[in-house]
């Protein structure tokens, strides 16, 4: 049965030859019947009308099988069969033939049956129409024919089924309403086989058929006239043409469907983006209205906002992708979709830009709130530092440190002023932003939320203003106190300086105010200068006293004990007493010197002829006593109230002054002697 075939040969009536090779194995009549039905379905009706010649090859089979096959032909193809040639084996079935003669059954069978040897089969069929198995020259490769037939059958089946499917899809796309088209295309959109594969198979099959017809096939198998009928080359061409036509329509349907699917996907994604941004996305922003009451709270809100932005970024990425897809479709230029695409693009852009603006506004608001709280915290720390500085009692060592502290205090106050001004600017900017917040509130009443934020901002600024005002008041008090302390230290320094000056005057009085003058006039000049010198010292002492009195008043105001009260004042009084004692000694010496020089000069200037010259000898005794008294004072130190002693000048200076007085006393003594000589000579005369 495997080789049951139509070889392509023809009998003398141009009828097709059907060969049935039988074998020793059991033959299934059902399978044989099915195979015959299939082979008889291949030729055209025109070929069938010419009849068949059936060759039953019984050389390798039993007589009863051959008989059964022949009888089966009566039931399967009696009208098409015109002659049945039973090829008998070399060992003839003589006895069996006597039991059944086919020629006697011709009328009942409907066709002629002959028994013939293989070498005599050419009596009925031309050798060129017989294969080599029967002594003919017809070249036939059953496996090649079978493979080609299987390819043809597969192509015919697949192409026919594919044509039905494509026709259903294409016809469904031509229905009236859009909804019906979409429903039809959705149900039958994908064919069961790949059209490209079926077309490629058909083209390869057609190419093989055309090659066999014009060039012969490999192996020297030539083309036979039956190939067109058995392999149906026109049928292949017709199927290919129909497939190409339907496939072209199908591709257009697919293109339209793909475009519609892409548009629907874009529309679906657009609505997903829009619905999320206008739904959960907007709800997230609606719940975020606070600005925090500290840096940490504002940073926490910023972190929460960054999470919201991160979620929005995913949808914005989808927006960018969709926008690119829509732009590509718009560039394709399909007029029927332009309006819808532009509407989708506009809707998507409006929602995304509005949401992005809201996110940016919220981010800017939180950044402004963070800056406001940062400035408020810095200002609070500055006020705390200033308050701490003001709460510490001032105990400076000197006026310079007080000036430095006062300068630092002024700098801190100036920094606080600058910080408060910066806080007002940040607060006003934040309030301006909050006032614009209602413009994208989606109809929600944000009065309560905004009022809380506004009250918080204004409360912070007012609190900082009050704290700054309290610090300013304390700074004013501290400034006054520190200025008084500066004045106190200045008075103490000036009082100490007055003591130094007075000490220097005392030292100058003792070391440089030594001369007693060479005559009365010079001594009077020295006495006058000394009085002026004393006036300077008196002014210095009075200045020091006034300064010390001022320190007492300042100490009482500052509620502190001045160090000067136990040190500078006693020193000033001590130096002043020493200066007074020294000055009085200096005045006494100068006055004594004036009296000495005046008397001496008077005596020395009198002439001996004057009548009163000899009558006033007591003057000489007086001047001598004054001179000795003056000399004695020059050798005596100045004794201070505390018992200490101090000499005027150096010993050499005192010796020089004493020598000058002695010389003048000698002149007076000589004058006295001169006056006494005339008195002695007068009695003798």
Automatic annotation (TrEMBL):
InterPro entries: CRAL-TRIO_dom, Spectrin_SESTD1. GO terms for molecular function: phosphatidylinositol-3,4-bisphosphate binding; phosphatidylinositol-3,5-bisphosphate binding; phosphatidylinositol-3-phosphate binding; phosphatidylinositol-4,5-bisphosphate binding; phosphatidylinositol-4-phosphate binding; phosphatidylinositol-5-phosphate binding. Residues 1-142 form the CRAL-TRIO domain. It comes from the Eukaryota. Keywords: Repeat. Belongs to the SOLO family. This is SESD1 protein. It comes from Sylvia borin (Garden warbler).
